[in-house]
């Protein structure tokens, strides 16, 4: 299948597919006209990549899951290495959330101090 067909089948963009290919997560053959041709199995692989990215992992993190990207990643038991990567990413996300929460709280406190408590926090 050509890149546009794969994009449509997986709900992603051709640009993202080229990015995944450049990252070594998917591969294609080249037709005589230069078009990328993907195997039908690429649909499952791309859906798994998108699932892992949506879970908060990065493309570098997803590389750890290369051996199982052609299966059912969502229900397969995670490997020790996969768990380690996911836990490390979770720690990074928690640190970022804590830093953003602290910044928000400092800004809110400064606004309250300067406005005489006339502001209401936006939820």
The total of beta strands comes to 2
Q: Quote the beta fraction.
A: under 5%
Structural class: mainly alpha
SSE sequence, one letter per element? HHEEHHH
Largest sheet: 2 strands, antiparallel
Q: In terms of per-residue confidence, which ranges show pLDDT below 50 for 5 or more consecutive residues?
A: none
Quick overview of this protein structure:
This protein has 123 residues and is mainly alpha-helical. It has five helices and two strands; from the N terminus they run ααββααα. The chain has helices at residues 3-10, 14-22, 42-54, 59-62, 80-115; strands at 29-30, 36-37.
Question: Explain this structure to me?
Answer:
The chain is mainly alpha-helical and 123 residues long. The chain has helices spanning 3-10, 14-22, 42-54, 59-62, 80-115, and strands at 29-30, 36-37. The N and C termini lie far apart (45 Å).
Task: From the structure above, extract its key features.
123 residues, mainly alpha, two-stranded antiparallel ribbon, 5 helices, 2 strands
Break the fold down into its secondary structure elements and pairings.
Blueprint: H1 3-10, H2 14-22, E1 29-30, E2 36-37, H3 42-54, H4 59-62, H5 80-115
Antiparallel strand pairs: 1-2
